[in-house]
Amino acid sequence: MPGRLVAGGVAAVLVASVALVAALYAAGSEPQDAGGIGGPGTFVSWLLPMLRLISTLATVGCAGALLAAVVLLRIEGGPLGVQGRRAVRDASNSAIIWAVCAFAGAIVTASLLLNTPVRLLRLRLDDALGVPEVKALLITGILVLALAIGIRRVQTSSAAGLGVLVAIAALVPTAVTAYPRNESYVVLAGAALVIHVIAATTWVGGLAGLVRYGRASRTGLPIVLERYGQVALISSIAVLISGLISAAGRLAARGGGWGSIIDTVTEDAYGGLLIAKVAAFLLLIVLAALHRSRSDAPDLLDSARPFWRVVGIELLIMAVTLGLSVALSQTV
User: Fold this and answer.
1) Which domain holds residue 234?
2) Is residue 2 part of a domain?
3) What is the pLDDT, as a whole number, of residue 77?
4) Could you tell me if residue 146 is inside a domain?
5) Domain count, the chain
6) Is 0.85 surpassed by the pTM of this model?
């Protein structure tokens, strides 16, 4: 049902954007024009979190489509079905958006870190290419662009599976450069963050893929639901454990030791956003349990069923969580 899908996608973008902006202001981390005369300006400062948000949503869309083609819609024997081929085309389109955001993010990041207007970055190209965050975004953009081109016309689940590996590889560079390099706990927090990002993308993207592709077949939907349930269980556990480890490492680094974690949570803006994200995660767990309890109802293809309303609410809460995640990455 294209109209509802478009409306749902627009709603997710709006909800995530509102959550991002509200979280940044609540934490006092809203972008500022700190460059003074000749700096990049407030608009460019705001452009970075918005590009990160759009990139995150495109990443989720790409991952969800690939997961649907490789796992949720898997057909024994290898060839992709009609919905599987549709999914890889959607994954390719999402990857193009992801790549554009990565390249644009590299330019904006270089402008902000070098305190140089975008139009003058060409004069400091060597300096820009030496910034780790910029190099990470460029690597991501190249990998994702190759992914978009490579999976466009694949016909088998094994070929689409190679696309999944490339997508996972593209998530790593920006995750490992997410924390300042002078933090003593950066190795622990960074390694956990890589797992956290991959697991969260799989969980959220899988649910989006279920909604978009799983409803195409009355007889196939229960199988798709069962497969997604297994993916969601593993992903949610990985999200919880890796998120706790990553947050603990970041909080310890901010407070100067493991013993300062509680104080940092209660007194620091980062801790406040972290509490909000944990609350959203717990709500998602409750909704997931409700989601599973209603998945054995007859005629699940009926869009008026309570099951789909629960799934819709779950996706909106996930959008809020993604907005909070981007806000956390902006909080210093």
Assistant:
1) 8-330
2) no
3) 57
4) yes
5) 1
6) yes
